[in-house]
Amino acid sequence: KKGNYDHFMQKEIYEQPESLRTTLRGRLIPGDESKVKGVLLGGLKAHLRTIRRSRRILFIGCGTSFHAALATRPLVEELSEVPVTMEIASDFLDRRAPIYREDTAVFVSQSGETADTLQALEYAKSHGALCVGITNTVGSAISRGTDCGVHINAGCEIGVASTKAYTSQIAVMTMLALAIGEDAISTRARREAIIDGLLDLPGVVKEVLKLDEKMKELAATLMEEQSLLLFGRGYNYATALEGALKVKELALMHSEGILAGEMKHGPLALVDETLPIIVIATRDSTCSKQQSVIQQLQARKGRLIVMCAKGDAAIMCPNGASYVIEVPHIQDCLQPIINIIPLQLLAYHLTVLRGFNVDQPRNLAKSVTTE
Ligand code: UD1
Ligand code: F6R
């Protein structure tokens, strides 16, 4: 049931304060005199020691689920000090990539039924790796087939394009990073700050949803375009890839997410006065680098749309931009959850304005059960 909404996707975008609350429910320990602040992932408790001792962690998934894993990779590496490698399930299988008993393989899938991810799971299992699932669907093949895991509890997602599952996947994988790192004294303050951020998250998501009208306005200025680029880095490289995926699959507009650090190695040649470029430049350790990316794009008269933290527009783009999206600030590693929401709204409005099917994009299926 769509209730007051025109489309399931719109409903699912708006559900995110609630779906995130459900994802986090019972899993955050706010901390008091008797208990230390921490996370509780029932399904992982018995396996955390093995995960911490693994030689490598592999994140495996497809599409949006792969992007969610990519968004949390920096934090998992920071808190676990275990190297994390990223694998798109089909490519992992094409290469028959090496994987060992000392590895932990984390399979991320909303449906829990994606053929490539499921086959990658069988392959990793047969090589003796510890297999962990991050799934939304209780009883799904990936949920049943993994040694252990976490259900994201985002609720049923009907729109073919994944929205609320993405933000819940990031929230769960953030908790996974906290759980793996929970015995390190040196990162305790950092972990506690992230837990405070998770407790604030539903409220901040509510806040960012207020950008809806502004994103509709922006969509109206972009609806006739052929192409849209998104530049991100660090935690928000995933935001650039995921924003571009939403625009291309829904609005049927060419869109590409680009790692900003790669700009000078090719993409800069595309920049002119007409091609719209979204630069994600919210506050984190990479934001001074994004500032210089913005300057270089401006020097080439790029048509910039800058996403930055509330109040940062004057610092991040002193020479102005064709459009500024100011988002609420949260802990660096949680910022991808906030930043994707205006881009989900942008993709939604672009699709409606261009007259395409929002909930059933052409040629796509919700659950991809064939290779
Ligand atoms: C579980 C219950 C939840 C209950 C809570 C109370 C289920 C599905 N969940 O939640 O209803 O309120 O205890 O403490 O009954 N798993 C995998 N692979 C996956 C996902 C999960 O193997 O991809 C396994 C987990 O290791 C765990 C079980 O499935 O053994 C349930 O996982 P999850 O629902 O995340 O556990 P809890 O949050 O503890
Ligand atoms: C994009 C989208 C797809 C899925 C992909 C994996 O909006 O929904 O890219 O993310 O097909 O699906 P799951 O997560 O079910 O394995």
From TrEMBL:
GO terms for molecular function: glutamine-fructose-6-phosphate transaminase (isomerizing) activity. Residues 47-186, 218-361 form the SIS domain. It is an enzyme of class 2 (transferase). It catalyses: D-fructose 6-phosphate + L-glutamine = D-glucosamine 6-phosphate + L-glutamate. Its EC number is 2.6.1.16. The keyword Magnesium does not apply. The keyword Endoplasmic reticulum does not apply. One of its GO terms (biological process) is amino sugar biosynthetic process. Keywords: Aminotransferase, Glutamine amidotransferase, Repeat, Transferase. This is glutamine--fructose-6-phosphate transaminase (isomerizing). Pathway: Nucleotide-sugar biosynthesis; UDP-N-acetyl-alpha-D-glucosamine biosynthesis; alpha-D-glucosamine 6-phosphate from D-fructose 6-phosphate: step 1/1.
